[in-house]
Amino acid sequence: MVPLDPPTDEELTRRAQSGEAEALGLLLARHQAPMRAVALSLLGYGPDAEDAVQEAALTALRRIGDVRDPTAVGAWLRAVVRNACRMRLRAARETPGLDGLDHLRLRDDEPSHPEQLIERHAMRDWIWDAVEELPEQLRLVLMLRHFSGITSYQEIADACDVPVGTVRSRLNQARAKLARVLTDSATQAHDDAAAVTEESRHEGMATLQAWQTGGLPREISELWPAESEMVGRLGRPGEHTHPIPVMRRYLEYGVRQHLRHVVASRDIDIWEMDVTHEVDVTLLDPAHICPPNLAWLMFRRDGRVQRLRVVFPRQA
After folding, report:
1. Which of 296 and 131 is assigned the larger pLDDT?
2. CATH number of 194-311: 3.90.1150.10, 3.10.450.50, 3.40.50.300, 3.40.120.10?
3. What pTM, to 2 d.p., does this model score?
């Protein structure tokens, strides 16, 4: 039997642009060596060069549709690597968002956001399945940095209650693992990530409505079992604090939360909230005044919330 010729770069690029994850995985694997050579020439041997290659691979996920000449996709990938290297060379100052994944963050008020393009190309499920493979600590910083509104290193450090240096280290580890998992899982079937997010959004809306009306339907009570614990700024050190009494207390102060954005994986959810006050804030104790936005970080086990940490982004 005459062996089949391998697909050309042009074929793989066009298939990737039409949403075929396997084609993009093959394309990245084929060009990994020349991409690494570019990084080494600019950054030298070391972790920075590897990180630049990984960032470039992640950038290709969201920008493969930008390739106008599929026959020259190799040159395009090398250019993406050069850009990632240059950003590292001049990154004495921190830039918000993700280097390569910042445009994956879904914003409800941006219907033309690139995440919609990814969803049309059927790659979003591939990306989220890869994210799910990361250990919890790495997954959390990645979800915050790349998919939520909490993007600066300092905000993430505050949210995770760790030093900024730890955030940087975890992000580097997460990027490296994610790039490898994406390549390894390109040909696999992937879960419906949109369904996970939609279910989390439904639970968020139902939770807020139930707490504001004073009644908890059965499914919401099951979401917040007796072992659920409020940790962090609103918790009490050394004591088990259930979230429901805390939230109801803030309701009495006139605080109202409105779900704006949801980021969800199988056992970590991020609910970003807009906050309003139904009373004159000048009459309140300053301790009872909330900033205009906040976020809930929830950690689940068997679908139920085990820990809730409410964080207040610094830009608020």
Report:
1. 296
2. 3.10.450.50
3. 0.65
